[in-house]
Each structure stands twice: as C-alpha cells, then as structure tokens.
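Figure S7 source data.
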Amino acid sequence: MLRYQSSARKRLLLITASSPEIGRVRRVRVLNFQQITMPYLAALVPDDWQVIHVDEVVTAVDVASQVDLVAMTFHTPSAFHAYELATQFRRRGIPVVLGGPHVTLVPDEAQQYADVIFVGEAEQQWPKFLSDFATGQYQRRYSAIGLPNLDNAPVARKDLFHRRDHTAGRLFATRGCAYHCDFCTLRVMYRGLVRQRPVAAVAAEYASFAGKVIIFWDDNLASDLDYAKALFRAIAPHRKWWSSQASIQAGSDPQFLELAARSGCKQLFIGLESISQASMDEAHKGFNRVDDYARVIERIHSYGIAVQAGIVFGFDHDTEAIFSDTLDFLEAVGVQNATFNILTPYPGTRLYRRLEAEDRILTRDWAKYNGRQDVVFRPRQMSALTLLDGYRYANRRFYSPLSISRRLSRSPVGLWWTLPLNLAYLSARWFDQRPRIQPSSARPSEHQ
Ligand code: SF4
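Tokens for the predicted iron/sulfur cluster complex:
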C-alpha cells in the first residue's frame, strides 16, 4: 500500500497518449475518430475533482502542469512515449496511473513506470482507486475483477471530446468479440466475452448528439445479430447516419442489413484481412470464407451501404503476389474504402508467442509496432522490405485516381458519400511517400 497526501484542490489530468511517430501515421489516415476511453472514465470521477483531458492527437502535454494526479491510456506504439511522460511527472512528485491496452498486454513492464497500473477494463476499479487515493492509501495494481456489466455504463463526457474529426458523435453499444484471431489483442483484453449496453440507453445517447454522423466505437457490432437488430430499430427514428466495425457475418444476414440501412448505416468496416484462405486459416480466422467475399460485398452494397475493407499483409502464406492480387480483387468488387495494415505481433497475442518461439521477432521497440511504417518480424515468404514496400504500393494504388474511378464506377453506393472520402485519401496519401526506404527490386508491378 502506498501513501500520498493530496492537496486540498484536486486536479486530475487524463491523457490519451499518442507518440509523435503515431501522429505521423494518423496524418494520412484522414479519419481519426475520437477515442472515448478517457471521456468515459471521466464520467465516473466524483465532483470534488477537476478533470482535464489532453488528447495528444490534438494538443501536446504540458509536463509542468499543476495537477495532483495523472492518468494515461495508450496503445503499444505509444508506450515508450507514455513512459517518458510518466517519468517526467513522477520526477515532480505527481503520482501517475497507467492503463489501457498495452498495460494489460505487458503489465510488469508498465508497472516500472507508474505509481499505479490498471490491468484489464478499468471502470469497476477506477472509482475505488479514486476513493483510496483520497485517503492517501492505494494499491500499486488494480486488476479487473471479472468483466464489467454494462447495464449501468455511464455516458462519456462530450465536453472532453477534442478531436475535430468528421463525425459528430462517438459511442459504443457492445464491447468485445467472441472470436480469437491470432493477431488480435481483444482476446487478452476481454477474454472472448461480448457484453451489450441496454438498447434504450444506447439509443438515448445516440439521440443526444447534435450532429448527423455517428460512429459506433464497437469491436464488432455484428457479434450478436439479434441485439444489433433491436438497436437498429431503436435508433432509426433519429434519422442520423452511422458507421461501425463488424465481422463479415453482418453481410450474411439480409435482415441485419435491411434494418441497418433503414436506421442510417452508411458504411461498415469489415475485417476481410486477406484474400488468401490459407492465410485466414493460419490466423484462426477461418470463418472468413474468401470464396464468399464478393457475394457478401455485393449484398452489403445492394442495401446502399459502403464497405471499408480491413486488409492485413504479411501472413506466412502471403507471397509477393498478394499485393496486386488484393488490389485486383478490391477494384473488381468496387470496395469504397480500405485500411491496409502490416501484420504486427502485439505482445500477449498468440501470434507474438508463435513468432517469438520461431525466433522471428526483429525488434521489441514498441514504437515500431504501428502496423503502417515498420515491419517488426521476419516474414516467411518475402523480405521485411518487400512487405513494407508492398503495403505502400497497396495504399498508393488503392487511392490513385484510376483505382478510385474503377472502384466507385462499380459501386452502387452514392458518390456523394464515397467520393469525398476517396479524394481526401488521395491527397493525404502523399504524406506517406517519405523516402524512408529504397524501392525493392521485388516491388509489385506499378502497371495499374
Ligand atoms: S473478428 Fe475481428 S475483433 Fe474479433 S477477434 Fe478477430 S480480428 Fe479481433
């Protein structure tokens, strides 16, 4: 048990940490949706605290801030940066709390840089910690006890949303995913259990946003199709537009799609991951049936819903042909948007353990675990440089004028919705052309 006597005036600084390297990655992503973890935890803070939220995507942290307590959340690529911030505050005698995905993945590492860490979902233990802190006695580590029930989940504080993104509202309806894909950190975070907030509570929060466009910050909104359908019926009268992540099962249920479209769904982010079935089987994501992709995408489109495809390169079954084959496929089916990622073995995942056992991890510099600018493991069938180069080729080609024209001309979804986003990516992609690497002799063909 530690002791810390706070001053009479208590100021709590919440930080959504983001390293400068991740800032560079974000600049080319166009869509940088507000993370809601800190605005959500702020809703659980008693009134005798003054809460300040610094989102580093928007504002730099002032390490000279006069505060009584700092709490930070961050993902793996921002870990070293967050540790540096923590060290600076602690040098001034300000206690620092660390939590979030990376802390849960490697708690013993994070503990070295913090007075207190939160392992797992923080919301149950967060009020207890604040109460302990007020007494001057608190623990070094607070671990989630079971998985929080979301029946009484608070509403995130909108006044602490700071990003000027392209949406008016961010909220979540469900948390977790029932699957266990090798590369995904959700299994470690949520242990494969999915929970839902009451439909009425989600609908009320959805309606409370003044703007028209809403993002559901869910891991997989299709994990419980019946729940999703009830939610869509409840939000439809509000006549807003929304988007969310969903597994491919979303596209297999016409009623899900019809209700989603009627309730204002304009785009679904679908984790296709790979057009290689062998790669999907390898990643324990065999429920993604590659042979069905074209049919599912066509069905989603038929309801006027655009598809943003999540694509990962670097699986053991990927050869150099995967890059151009994937682009050929995405253009042929008229996918409206895509997010390309370099396979990244986050610590704590099954993928990380396998590659570590095979002595294929190239670096444990977490800043390089960004999935966009660095390859951190030795690929099986190509060099790391070829993988990086192929990833860049995919981005360049997908958001080239020719590809945009090909894809959107085959897309039955309204151009008013899909063209502006493609043009934004077309201009942003030039930021990603920094001469960090030399072109590989094995560069995929630039014939497109
Ligand atoms: S389906 Fe998606 S969210 Fe669920 S475990 Fe797999 S990659 Fe993660």
